[in-house]
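Q: I have 283 residues here and want to know how they pack in 3D. Can you give me a structure?
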Amino acid sequence: MPSSFGFKLNQAFEQHGQLCVGIDPHESLFDAWGLDNNVQGLDYFANKVVELSAGLVGIIKPQVSFFERFGSEGFRVLETTNQRATDAGLLVISDAKRGDIGSTMVAYLDAWLGRGSSFSSDALTVNPFLGLRTASDFMQPYLERGKGVFALVATSNPEGASVQLASRDSQTVAELIWNELHELNQVTSAAGDRFGSFGAVLGATLDFRRFGIRLDQGGVKTPILAPGFGAQGADLRDVRRIFGDASGQVIANVSRSVLESGQQAFQEAIKRASDDLRSGLGG
């Protein structure tokens, strides 16, 4: 049986650290790389990011929307990008934020995590607000093939707070989802796994106490995908201050802060970010 996603994540951490490079092909970044804002520019940019990231980090996170804006041609680039990343030994978290009901959710999971999927993803970000159990009920075949999901829990965009801070039975929506992910990891993880395969997206710029989220839960740990470092304002050197004892389960995502350095300085920007993260983790 293939290793679980949680096991593969732990291996990536041990081999390359906890930094994740987000592939976010903003039009402005094309300018920084001297590329045209078209499919050819997208193809060069995305695949060059994979090439330059391999060996320096263990995880990449393509932001699907920036590929989707080019239609079917953009998706073909994404397929190639993800396959090259997989071939290079990188874990691929596709940031597509899919989520739906019943058979529709199965179709999304098949598209991104299914056997022979063109998108070659190890994990997928999902929107849990149509019911987290809808996704989890259908995840077992994918878990057995080493796949994972990351559910939106508490995000950095200010507009999200009106939903995520809404409460039921004295718990916020964000807290309920976080606790459910923790429970799922306790019952679905393989023996000896440090991390579960059900992860949470938590913005690094947030005060989690405001959401009622307790990060210091025992048992199998819930992986935390943390956008917000770099351009959005959170400092990698503050990762332990932000996440406390849970900092060891954080996938620290950086995108614009390293991508905008341009092609020639990109690897040096990754190395500086990695050093900052190690410092923040106390390494």
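Q: Anything worth noting?
A: The longest strand covers residues 91-98. Residues 5-281 form a domain with the TIM Barrel fold (CATH 3.20.20.70).
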